[in-house]
Amino acid sequence: MPLRSFTTLFTLLLAFSLMAPAQQLPREQWGAPAVTVTHAGGKWTIAGKRHKVTLNQPDLAIKVEAGPVAWVMTPSSKDDLLVKSRGEEFYVRLADAGKIDIVPYDTGYKTGVKISLSRFRGAGPLTGAGELDLALYLTVCLEGPDEELVFDLAAQERQALVRQLDWPKDVDARAVDYTVLSNRRGTLLPRDWPKEYNPIRPGKADGTIDPKDTSVIQSNLVECWSMSWWGFQKGPSAMMVIVETPDDAGYKFHHPAGGPTVICPHWSATLGRLGYPRSARMVFFEKGNYVDLAKRYRRHVIDSGQFVSLKEKMAREPAVAQLIGTPHLRQHILRNYREGAHRYDPKDPKKNYNLVTFDQRAGELRQLKAKGIDRLYVCLAGWPRLGYDRQHPDELPPAPQAGGWEGMRRYGEVAKELGYLFVLHDQYRDYYTDAPSYQEQFAVHEEDAVKPPTAFPGSRFGQWKEGSIPFMDYWDGGKQTSLDPRFMLGHLVKNYRLMFDHGIKPRGAYLDVFGYVPPDQDFNPEHPATRADSMRSRAACFRWVRANLGLVGTEAAADWVIPYVDYGSANPGRGKAIPVPLYELVYHDAIVLPYGGRDNDENLVGLLCGGVPQLWQAEKLTDDALRMLRRMAALHARVGLSEMTRHEFLDKNYRKERTTFADGTAVTVDWDARTASITPD
């Protein structure tokens, strides 16, 4: 044998001999989960050391045995999948796929099965019963030492498109004690809650849901989704679902009077199709409750970079430190309802117009300083040329009848002299038809001109379409639509540069609705925008405010905004069943939130949550209100940068509860006595 060939052969043999021991190492030694996958009798079993998952192949039902508790997901149903093909939309049952292939699936860090579904049949006069050009790929895997159950899904869409997919299916809730919802600031919903419950549609006095409200559950709409998770408590055990791809998501939900609750992931289309892979994660607790679920989600957002603490925000913008322990005040300059609009009252003109000048508001600030309020955050609203919610995004010059440019500049100088933080209430989503720059081509377009409009909040207050553009008329400015998100930053920069030219530079901006309403989709082919594009555009506005003004705020603050904003507003408030402070258990030390001011119950909530106080009707500030304001401000100065570590109910009727913070401070609220105690004093 030639020397060169012998050398090559020897090298190959040596390489294989060195590789062999590595290939024979037990899985745990190279980091793989100790999970096995078996198949017998139409069932697939994914077995780890702690959890066992069983997939029933005929109906795709899933059962998870996690310690002493079994969590059972319902079988495939007729409304699993909404498909569009040849201009028709219809539902398809996943288990009715003409071809179902299930095989073991092992990435090296998670192990389970892959389900390939294809050869679905049509269900309409145009599609007939022919095969759809569509395939789905679903994976179910145990991952990590805690053996969390991870679900991934993707679609191969050609002529048939996925419009909606509900998977994994809902947990059988007949044996669940509570559903844990992260809508609003957090809710415990008992299995047998006696009233119909809908997270987004408000209930009427008789407990039924308002049928005129067509709003749907969707991600980043804070009333139903302040954070992208929900969970369950069953006896001493608990489990949760974390939606890891929340941009185009939501949850299927139903709770009739008396229960039980139906909830599962609901994947929405992006610009008409599934478009990209989606993921959800189930986490199981042999012993745990809603606090443990919130803390697991906190770890998730820390790991993903979505959690940015107030201490980090102070490092990049020192003015954030001035928000800690500082009361919030909102002042209003001009209310001026658009003539002929929904709010305009032709019979009572006094309701349509109210003016307080910039100098008058500055005088009120001096009075508050004289009462001993040394620190104050002031959000100035109603300052645009025609008043509050008028002609956005073209709001300048400042209201001439209130003092115009010079009056607004003097107001800012007084706030600075007093040591108060002055920011502007501003708006770049609502797009009013009487704005000087208004053109339909820059408005958000829905997919077609045929279907009813779906945009929130028009879905609550009434809306209509002109072509494919949804309109509503509810706020002060009358007829409006929504501005395509790609054009928001340009208008914001235009307005603030003109303010700078006139010597006006507030310390920050509160960008209305960005953290409350869901991100928009725009189907206009000239500037299409996905929901993810919309969030990036809003984030660009937040970043510009940070770089050029300092403090960044928004309304309500669904948790996607946490990396960008320093403070939010208190609405839409507590949960509607049994309120629990889930949001604060995750984000208390990442954002400043105001509470209270209008009545004692709101003040008690503010103390319980360790928030900053709101000051309402500064001209009517009583001694009692001033004492409460100082008490809440002192508490926030103490705990504002601390994690809320615990919440607990101290009686079976949920009338006495306690929060605990990382520094050891505990706040106990007795709702019957209407008192709050703070320890240590």
Walk me through the structure.
Residues about 5-20 have low confidence and may be disordered. With about 675 residues, the protein is of the alpha+beta class. Helix 4 (about 360-370) runs parallel beside helix 5 (about 405-420). It has a ten-stranded antiparallel β-sheet with strand order 8-9-10-11-19-16-15-13-14-31, with helices on one face. A seven-stranded parallel β-sheet has the order 30-29-24-23-20-33-32. Helix 5 links the parallel strand 23 (about 375-380) and strand 24 (about 420-425). The protein has a domain at about 170-315. The radius of gyration is 28 Å and the shape is globular. The termini are far apart.
Compact summary:
By secondary structure, this protein is of the alpha+beta class.
Strand order of the largest sheet: 8-9-10-11-19-16-15-13-14-31
Low-confidence parts:
6-22
Integer-rounded radius of gyration: 28 Å
Helix content: 10-25%
Would you count the extended β strands for me?
37
Shape: globular
Major β-sheet annotation = 10 strands, antiparallel
Average pLDDT taken over every residue: 94
Quote the beta fraction. Answer: 25-35%
Task: Give the structural class.
Answer: alpha+beta
Q: How many distinct helices? A: 11
Give the CA-CA distance, first to last residue.
90 Å
